[in-house]
Amino acid sequence: MTSPFKTVVLWDVASGQVVRRFRGHVGKVNCVDFNEESTVIVSGSIDGSARCWDTRSRRPSAVQTLPEARDGVSSVRVSPHEIVTGSVDGRVRRYDVRLGKLYSDHIGCPVSSVALSRDGQCVLAASLDSTLRLLDKESGELLGEFSGHRASSYRVECCFSERDTHIVCGSEDGRVCFWDLLEGSKVLELPVGKGVISSLAFHPSAPALLTTHSGTVIMGP
What we know:
Layout: E1 7-11, E2 18-23, E3 29-34, E4 40-45, E5 50-54, E6 64-66, E7 73-78, E8 82-87, E9 91-96, E10 101-106, E11 111-116, E12 122-127, E13 131-136, E14 142-147, E15 158-160, E16 166-170, E17 175-180, E18 186-191, E19 199-202, E20 209-213, E21 216-220
Antiparallel strand pairs: 1-2, 3-4, 4-5, 5-6, 7-8, 8-9, 9-10, 11-12, 12-13, 13-14, 15-16, 16-17, 17-18, 19-20, 20-21
Pfam family, one: WD40
Family: Belongs to the WD repeat MORG1 family.
Subcellular location: Cytoplasm
């Protein structure tokens, strides 16, 4: 869970009790993600850093800090050996944890969300010019652009469907939009409600989508 008070909060889902509070960011926390084993939390902040926290340790400080962003980190995604961040400075950064290398791709517009394809080959970046860009993860090559939603002022999330066949993104006007990944065409608009669709997540194996807007969480097929 993110917090406006520069803190990452870890909850026990069964009891509803706070397990840990991780402090170290000097600005509001925008985003968090777990690694596959839920042993590490990666958080991104408006202070321009991403920080890694060990959930098993009582150590109060981050185990690693990634300070390369020149503006706020708006989105983080974690794979088995990589951390991908999107930043308001217009860059998508990929940290290879095994090799200790950083790869950076310039989008040219503030990045509001990033997502990794299920097959690990592509990175999807949503930016504040109402455009989604599909990048080859290894080369940074632009594979496609997708538009038709509204995203110019607020952070709206994007993701892949459970089989990587579609790209999904929220919109500032209450819609969730779907594009065919191969053809690049928009195939569906779901009117969820009024207000910004700020967050969404696709089920890892079933055609089910979770969305949030105006303080409401909605799950549907």
